Amino acid sequence: MSTSSHQQRRLQQQQPEHEIQEDARDQQMLESLEEGMELAPDQAGRVAGQFGNAALAALLGGQVATPGAAGVDLEEEESVELVEELGEDIEAGQELESRDFGGGGVPAAPADGGGGSSGDPWDVGHLFGGDDEDDDPNAPTSTGRLGPSPRRKIKRPTDDPFEETLDEGELQPEDINGVDKIIGPTKARGETPRFGDAQYAAVETCLAEPRELGRRDLEPEDLVGRHGATDPISRPTAIGSFIADSGRNRRARTVGRLLATGTAGLFSQSNGFSGGVARLCSLAVCAEALEGGGPRTDRAVALALAEDAWPTTVGCARPMAQKGRLHAPEVLDALLGSRAPSQPVEQLPPPSVLGGRALEGLLPPAYIPEVPELDLDSDLPESSTDPDLQEIDAALNFFLTGNNSNRRAPDRPVPKSVVQPALHSARYLMNAAGKAHVEFAAAGFAVSSVRPDAPVRSPLEAADRALARIARAILRAGRKLEQVEGTPRTEVDPAAVQAMTEELNTARERLLELRQWSFETIAGALDA
Amino acid sequence: MPDAQRDPLLDVPVDPDAREDLVDEAFLDRIYDGQRHLEHLRNHPLLGPDRHAATERIRAVAAVLQEIPDDLASADLFRLAGDLSLEAGHGEAVDRYLRGAAAARRKGDFRCERDLHLRACRAVARMRGAESARGFFQELGKRDPEPCPITFALTCADIDPSTARENLEEALQLLTDPARAHERLMALEDLAEAYLAGKEPSRAIDVLKQALKLAEQWADQGRAGHAHALMATIHLTTGRPEASLPHLEAAFAGAIEEDDDLLTVVHGTVLCGLYLDRERWSDAEPVARRILASAERRGNWIGVADAALAWSATFVGQDRASAAVAVVGRTLLTLRQQNAHAAAALLHARLGELRAVMGDEAFDLVLRRVLAALGSAT
C-alpha cells in the first residue's frame, strides 16, 4: 500500500500541468479519414483515444480541489478551560489521595505480583471462550474510580504557523507514550497465516496507529467530515457501503447498510472513540464474513477502497491522450513506472464478479447511449389524408412562409437535423471507447495498488485490441451516416440507414460487454 | 410450482410379485428411504427444522440417484438444491437449476424445464447482476399463457429492479402453497428491500412483519432472526434506536439458539452498543462476554477487541475504571500473542483514552498492577 502511494506521489510530481487542448485536432483526424478506409489497430486506437479526449477533458475540467482544513479560533475556549483546569487539578489531587486500589473491604490487589487465585481482582477470568455466568467470582472487582474529566493541555503559542498542532480532543503523544512505557508499543510482528474471520483484513489498514484511534473526548462532530482510505471511521463505513450495494448475501447487505448509514448510532460515550471504531471495524469484518469467499472477497473489498486510482490515472493519461497515444497498457506502465506484470494471454485470470463491481464503483458513471433509429421523413410536417385539409394546409403554408413548393419533393436532400441524433450518439460512443482506455488503466492501477505483483497487463492488452476493433466499427458506421446528410432522398435506402444504426448499436453492445468482461478479468488478476 | 413429475424409479409403488431372491434388498432399502425423503422434500418448505435437514435429505436421495441412470435424476432434487444455494447466495445455484432443467427436458416435462430455466435466470441476476441475466431472459421469452406465472413474476422482479415491487406483489398473491413458503418468505424480504430502496421504510416494516410471522409459523429461528435484524436496521438507520432494541434482542437470542457465532457477533455488537448508550450495564455485560467467546471462536480478533472494549465500558460506566483497565490490558496482551496487531492497536488506543481520563499517575499504577498480576510486565 505504501509503495503504491509513493508511486502515486512520484507520478503526480512527474506529470506536467498542461492546459486542455481543444477538440479540433480530433475532428481534423476524423475528417481526414476516407469512407470505408480500414484502419490499423494502432490508428484506430489513436482515433478512439482522441475521441476520448473530449470525455477526458470534461472530466479533467470537473475535478474538485480538496478543501483545506478550516482553522478554528480557540482563544476564548482556552481561557475558559484554563479556569476549569485549575479547579480540576485540585480535584484530581484530592481524588488520588483518597483512592484505595484494592484495599478496604474488597479482595486485596496482588501487590506482591501473585495472581490467579479466586479472590484476585485482576484476574478477569473466563475472558476467552468462557461461560456467561453473571455471578462470575473472577469478574473484576477493583474499586478504582473514574477520574475527573480529562485534563486539558493548553497549547503553547508558537511562532511557526506550519507547526502541526493537535486539536482539543485528540490523544496527546504522552497519553500513548505513557502506555507504551508500561506495556510496550503495539507493532506488527510480520505476517503470520490467517485463519477464520482474521482473513478479512481490508479494514485493518486504518488500524495501524493507536494514537489515531483514540480521542480524549467523544463529540458528535468527531464523526462527521471523515474521509480517506486510512480514516478509522470512513474506511469501515466505505466497506459497509460497498457490501450494501454489491454484496450477494442479504445478511451481508443488511450489515453493510447499517454500517453505511447508521454510524452515529454505533458510538456510545462510555465506550469512547476507540470503542466506536472497534464496533465499526468488527461489523465490517462480519459483513465480509457473511458475504463469504474468504481472501477473494477481502481483496475485492480492498479494491473498492482504492479511491485514488481514477484521479491519478486521469492525470497520467492526459499527456498521452494529447499525443494521441492513449492505450490502456501503456497508461498503466506509465503509472507504475515500469512494465506491469503480465502472463500469457491464453492464461487470463478467472473473473471476479465482486472485484468487477468494486472497480466500476471507483469510476465515474459511464454514459454509453443507444443509437436512435432514424426516420428520414422526420423533418416533414404531418399531412392530413383529407384533400380539403391538405388544400388548407398548403394555403396556410403559402401565407406563412411564401413557399409554394411541394415539401415532399423526392429529390429533397436529407437535412442535417435528421441524421444528427445518430451522429451525436456515434460521437458519444467513440468518446466512451476512448475513455475506456483510461478506465481500464485505472482498474489495472487499482489492482496493482492492492497486490503489486498481480498479472494485470494481459487483460489490458486483450481489452486494448478489442477496443480498437470497436472503434473501427463505430468509425466506419459513423462515416457512412455522415454521408447520408445532404444526399437526395431518392438515393438513400432506408434499409441501409437502418443497417448503419444497427451497426452502431452492435458496437455499443460490444463495448458494454467488453467493459464488464474487462473489469471482472482485471479484478480477477488479484486472485491469479 | 408445477406438479412434481413422478420419478420412474423412486415413485413407483412396490410390486407385490417381485421375486425377493433376485432383488438386492439393501438397494431396495435405499430406494425406499430415498422415496421417503423425496416425498418429504416435495411437501415441505425449506424452513425451520426442514431447512436444516434438507441438505442431508437431498444428499441421501442423490446417493440413491447415483445408482440409477442419470436421465432418471430428479429435477425436483436439483430445484431444491438450487433453492438452498440461492438462499445462501452461492453461485452453484445456477448450475443446479440448469442441470435440473436438462433432466426435466429428458423426461419431456417442459413446464418444469421452463420453471428451472427461469430460476437459473433469476440466480444469474442475483449473482452477476441484472444486466448479465437479461440476454438469457430474452432467449426464454414471454409465453401466453405463462405456464409458471409465479417464477416468471419473481424472475421479472430480479431482472428489472424498476418493476420489482409490482412483480413481487403479483407473485406474493399467487404464492399460497405451503410447500413454497420459503419462496414466499424470500419474496417478502425482497419486497421489503424494494420498499427500502424506494425510501418507504414503514411499508418495508409492514412486509417484514409478515415475513416474521411466516418464519415463526414454520419455527425457523434463523429466518425470524433475520426479519428482526432487518427491522432493527431500518429503525436504527431512520433514527429510532429505541424501537430497534426488542428486534435486536430477538435477533441475538435467535442467533444463540441457532448456535451461529457469526450472527451472535453481528447482532450482539449492535445490541451491546445500544445497552451501553442507555447505561444498562448489567444487560450489556453478558452480551459483551458472549460476543467475546463467539468472536474468538470465529478468529475475529477485531470482534474480540470490540467485545473487550464493550465489557470494559460497563466498568467505566460504573466508575470502576481499574477493572476496565484490567480487561483491556489483558485482552491487549492476548491479542499481541496472536499477532493481531490491528485489533491490539484499538485496545492500545483505549488505554491511552483511559489514561487521559484517569490521570497518568492513577492509570500507570493500575496498569502496572494489572501486568504484575498477569505476570507479563514489559
Write a concise keyword list for the protein shown above.
A: 528 residues; mainly alpha; 17 helices; 0% strand; B: 378 residues; 18 helices
Summarize the structure in words:
The complex is a heterodimer of chains A (528) and B (378). Chain A has 528 residues and is mainly α. In chain A, 53% of the residues lie in helices and 0% in strands. Chain A has helices at 2-14, 24-31, 41-61, 75-98, 173-183, 210-213, 234-246, 250-261, 272-291, 295-304, 309-322, 328-336, 353-362, 387-401, 416-450, 457-484, 494-524. The longest helix of chain A is centred in the C-terminal third of the chain and has 35 residues, at 416-450. In chain A, 41% of the residues are buried. Chain B has 378 residues and is mainly alpha-helical. Chain B has a domain at 1-125. Helices cover 76% and strands 0% of the residues of chain B. In chain B, helix 3 (75-88) packs parallel to helix 5 (110-128) and helix 9 (181-197) packs antiparallel against helix 10. The longest helix of chain B has 19 residues, at 25-43. Chain B is elongated and about 90 Å long. The chains are: A mainly alpha (528), B mainly alpha (378). Chains A and B meet through helix 4, helix 5, helix 6, helix 8 and helix 9 of A and helix 5, helix 11, helix 13, helix 14 and helix 15 of B.
